[in-house]
Amino acid sequence: MSGAVLHPGQVAVVTGGAAGIGFALAAAFLGRGLRVVLADRDTGTLDAAAARLAAAGHSVRTVPTDVSRPEDMRRLRETVLATEGRVDILVNNAGIYPGMQPVWTIDRDSWRALYDVNYWGVVHGIQEFVPQFIAQGSGTVVTTASMSGLSTVPGSADYSSAKHAVVALTETLRADLDLAGHGGIGVTLLCPSVVLTDMGRRALGVFEAEGNADERSRIGSGPDLSAVLTPEALAEAALAGIEAGDLYVLPTPRSRDRFLGRIRPILAAFAAAPITHGALEPGAAGAMSDPADEE
Questions:
Q1: Cβ atoms of 35 and 7 closer than 8 Å
Q2: CATH T-level assignment (fold) for domain 11-294
Q3: Is 119 a catalytic residue?
Q4: Exactly one of 97, 115, 119, 159 is catalytic; which is it?
């Protein structure tokens, strides 16, 4: 699909917008003349973010929002339309990072809490805003995933599995929109490696030289430290991807080997797999009878 044209007066809604990647995206949109609505569940952090942007000469609207609650996302959409009169971009960015531990030790309540934000928050955003984009015939959905959604790091089963789910969700959203004739609606998926935010620094913590050596040894090699990004660099890559109409924004090329390390064994397994006895020949599927015809 062709990319979106970003221009002054458009409205971008950014969840998890009070800090880190979300804040950098908001600042980048503002720098291009867009109006921005910041959504975050921490009112104090929201107010502080708005003050920082005001000091730089920008005015934003803030809406306290817990993305894990569908009613909050509905209220966010309604508030944006009532106050701004339009919405052009939704950034599903809110996320949490729990730290690292083996999969069998992860507390179930913590696991559910992570999925409520990192996965269900994206679902809620899509279900509230995409129908609006369809109705108006335009719009862009941007979702922050991670390289952990394209590969895995030992010790991050909850975070990585949620990000894998977000990648699949976003890819399917793109396919569903195309199939339904809504190819003019943009879908962009951000898959950075570690970003220098508070959450990113927490992820790096166990791998830093001054960190716990036993923990580092137990977890494994961890993220590629040469692929660390600033939030501002990621934001600029994201805007370029939106304008280019890219589905995938992969701003850390050095993470390529990490992804290839995941798919090489899969490709090798396909190559080594014997032809299954009884598999249909190409074109044979059309000869299968409809079960309804046999009743």
A1: no
A2: Rossmann fold (3.40.50)
A3: no
A4: 159
